Amino acid sequence: MRPRKCRYCRGPMPPPASTGRPALYCSLTCRRDNEYAVARRRWEERERRERPKREAEWKAQRLHRPLERWRAEAAITLLRGS
Ligand SMILES: [Zn+2]
Fold this sequence. Notes:
This protein has 82 residues and is mainly alpha-helical. The chain has one helix spanning 28-80. 65% of the residues lie in helices and 0% in strands. The longest helix is centred in the middle third of the chain and has 53 residues, at 28-80. The protein is elongated.
């Protein structure tokens, strides 16, 4: 049985090709968009899982940052001689 509607845009399907697997999407664009949406959803799920760890790392890094910036500014001041 062949799906009668595009899985992605729910639009009407074009006339079926005589060869190959049954099409799920009305066009290459819809197939690509769907693949992109799936990949994006997976990426977002992974992001959500790993976020607490990353935020902890980010906070740990940020603790060192003001000192580094102060050093950089001090070095520039020394170079300028003012
Ligand atoms: Zn479509």
